[in-house]
């Protein structure tokens, strides 16, 4: 992120504060006589500041002149913008910058132009390929929409109704994307190899295509309702304890999309492809913005996303995004402290350790140190680095202990996490890993059972009121010996009221209109064969219970045996009172 001497930056900040406190305006006389001439500074003012700040007179003079030039330049741009509407945009190039290209420019432009128009202006100014450029301002990607992107315009009467929507879609001017006079833009320059790839793909930018494809895949995954038909693709949103979070459909989709884009961005980040990673991470942040604050506090992903974005800024050396980086680090710290506690005490309670997340805090403190360094805050820099170093020491792993864990059959990842979580205690680490394995196994088992239940729910269908048939009530009726078809139809007609369903099965089974089944009222003991009764009696059940079970199951021997086995030979009454406890 470095571009200037941090020590001199601190002098600038201190002098700026003094000038404001003393209401000194360097852009006015006697300090500025002409915009084309150096400023005039009284000797006593320079000596006063030199003594107060303990800096040389030469440095004080240089700082005053820089502040004056900035103020005069800003005033000129504001006057120009007020008269002609021509804004000054400060540009910082980062990424694959060719030699001989100035990485800092000021571009004069109207704010009505699109991002595409602005990229053309940059191409004219620098000779760089506009298709390699990606514009980012204050953490947001600058879009450009052309008519061809929207497809053919609608015709006929419906066109007038949709005209305002189309106008909105096409209104991708710089002004509509919150750019103002004196705004700063970071321009990501894609690598040469990416540009060569784009020529093979009909002139489309590879990084943009990757982001677009990733977004489409993430949207497809987030739109899957319950992943019932194919267990190979499963996306579930859980809190920090691994429990599924129930969300409204629109928020579930937004959060699922954000998490998927974030995960893809992190995988690209590991490959050190910082420009493309930043694009994906900013897309994820856009989706997170569609979720309520209460939802974001339930998961730590948003804080990690902010950290990853600033990490990209750091490697792209984007000093112009320093204010945005500080804002994101503040959000990240608030999120971590809310999720883990100021001293990771909440994390210890929730997950049983604080080892895995220490690395996140190390990165956080390092990035806070970088921001403090570029503000000239040497004390703050040292403080943050001390915190990072202290936490990093806790992440150190003894190689002998690691090898010992590996010889026991644990994976390297498990061994490292276990040793870090247990501060190097091998015995505790073994217990920790074993516990985590069991928790993971139980969680997966529960997930599988829940998905099976959902699939059965969809298979059974809906009641007359549009609700899915209650699976627990269905299983209860089947265990009592009723056929799957009869239990399903009874619950559908009774709208999941198990008392009414039982009454229908007992008193009016013929009204259920089950093809191929005789009604309970028309089935009597005389319809039972001696062979049927003998088969049930051979299992050791009493005669009366065996006959009653066969009549309830309409002569189905296997269902009768299952019914008696499930009730240990004592058939429950079919009265309403007998099933009150099953309705909740």
Automatic annotation (TrEMBL):
Gene3D superfamilies: DNA helicase RuvA subunit, C-terminal domain (1.10.8.10), Phosphatidylinositol 3-kinase Catalytic Subunit, Chain A, domain 1 (3.10.20.90). Residues 204-231 form a coiled coil. It comes from the Eukaryota. Keywords: Coiled coil. GO terms for biological process: regulation of ubiquitin-dependent protein catabolic process. InterPro entries: NUB1 (IPR039749), SASH1/NUB1_homeodomain (IPR058666), UBA (IPR015940), UBA-like_sf (IPR009060), Ubiquitin-like_domsf (IPR029071). Residues 396-436, 477-508, 527-567 form the UBA domain. PROSITE patterns: UBA. PANTHER family: NEDD8 ULTIMATE BUSTER 1, NEDD8 ULTIMATE BUSTER-1 BS4 PROTEIN. This is UBA domain-containing protein. It comes from Pocillopora damicornis (Cauliflower coral).
């Amino acid at each position: 992120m470095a571009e200037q001497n941090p020590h001199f930056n601190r002098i600038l900040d201190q002098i700026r504060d003094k000038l404001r406190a003393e209401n000194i305006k360097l852009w006015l006389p006697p300090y500025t006589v002409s915009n084309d001439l150096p400023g005039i500074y009284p000797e006593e003012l320079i000596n006063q500041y030199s003594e107060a700040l303990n800096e040389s007179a030469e440095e004080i003079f240089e700082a005053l002149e820089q502040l004056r030039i900035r103020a005069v330049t800003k005033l000129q741009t504001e006057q120009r913008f007020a008269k002609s509407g021509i804004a000054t945009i400060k540009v910082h190039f980062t990424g694959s910058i060719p030699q001989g290209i100035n990485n800092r420019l000021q571009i004069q432009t109207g704010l009505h132009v699109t991002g595409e128009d602005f990229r053309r202006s940059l191409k004219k100014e620098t000779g760089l390929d506009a298709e390699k450029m990606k514009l980012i301002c204050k953490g947001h990607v600058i879009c450009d929409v052309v008519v061809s992107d929207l497809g053919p315009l609608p015709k006929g009467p419906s066109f007038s109704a949709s005209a305002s929507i189309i106008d909105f879609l096409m209104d991708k001017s710089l002004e509509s994307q919150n750019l103002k006079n004196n705004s700063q833009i970071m321009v990501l320059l894609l690598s040469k190899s990416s540009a060569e790839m784009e020529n093979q793909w009909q002139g489309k930018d590879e990084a943009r295509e990757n982001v677009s494809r990733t977004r489409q895949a993430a949207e497809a995954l987030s739109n899957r309702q319950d992943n019932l038909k194919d267990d190979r693709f499963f996306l579930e949103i859980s809190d920090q304890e691994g429990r599924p979070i129930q969300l409204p459909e629109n928020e579930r989709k937004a959060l699922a999309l954000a998490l998927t884009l974030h995960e893809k961005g992190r995988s690209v980040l590991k490959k050190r492809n910082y420009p493309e990673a930043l694009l994906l991470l900013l897309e994820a942040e856009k989706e997170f913005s569609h979720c309520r604050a209460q939802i974001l506090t339930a998961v730590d992903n948003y804080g990690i996303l902010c950290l990853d974005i600033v990490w990209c800024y750091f490697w792209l050396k984007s000093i112009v995004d320093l204010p945005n980086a500080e804002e994101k680090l503040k959000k990240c710290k608030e999120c971590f402290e809310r999720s883990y506690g100021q001293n990771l005490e909440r994390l210890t309670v929730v997950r049983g350790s604080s080892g895995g997340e220490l690395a996140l805090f190390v990165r956080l403190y390092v990035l806070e140190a970088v921001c403090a360094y570029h503000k000239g805050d040497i004390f703050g820099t040292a403080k943050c680095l001390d915190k990072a170093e202290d936490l990093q020491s806790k992440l150190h792993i003894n190689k002998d202990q690691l090898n010992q864990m590996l010889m026991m059959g644990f994976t390297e990842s498990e061994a490292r996490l276990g040793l870090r979580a247990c501060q190097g205690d091998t015995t505790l680490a073994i217990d920790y890993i074993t516990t985590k394995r069991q928790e993971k196994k139980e969680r997966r088992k529960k997930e599988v059972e829940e998905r099976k239940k959902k699939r059965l729910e969809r298979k059974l269908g809906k009641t007359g009121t549009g609700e899915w048939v209650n699976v627990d009530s269905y299983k209860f009726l089947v265990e009592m010996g009723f056929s799957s078809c009869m239990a399903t139809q009874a619950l559908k007609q009774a709208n999941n009221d198990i008392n009414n369903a039982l009454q229908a099965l007992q008193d009016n089974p013929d009204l259920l209109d089950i093809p191929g089944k005789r009604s309970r009222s028309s089935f009597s003991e005389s319809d039972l064969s001696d062979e049927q009764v003998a088969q049930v009696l051979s299992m050791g059940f009493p005669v009366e219970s065996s006959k009653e079970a066969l009549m309830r199951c309409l002569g189905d021997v296997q269902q009768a045996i299952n019914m008696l086995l499930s009730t240990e030979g004592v058939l429950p009454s079919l009265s309403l009172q007998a099933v009150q406890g099953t309705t909740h």
